[in-house]
Sequence to fold (103 residues):
Amino acid sequence: MIGHHSEITIMNRAILLLLATLACPLTYAKAPAAAGNPPDETQLIEHGSYTNKDGNAVHRPAHSKSGQKPQGATAQCRDGSYSFSQHHRGTCSRHGGVLAWLG
Fold:
């Protein structure tokens, strides 16, 4: 037989677990939104895209031919490439991490 104190402890743990689960999506904020402008492919060295967790096609990180921030970039990676990511999590993960978030 479970005592009254044990039932309260189990209920408190369940509530804490639920709150932690609900809070997790808030931990991973979105990266600054791209200005709604896709990058100009003629100004980029690398090409290609991936589908993000929202189902959106996003340009893969790429170096710009001029070395300047390309249109729509949201972060600069440590390897000098620019990311067009729409979320912080995973941004520049194969490019040495994020050097700077761009606004």
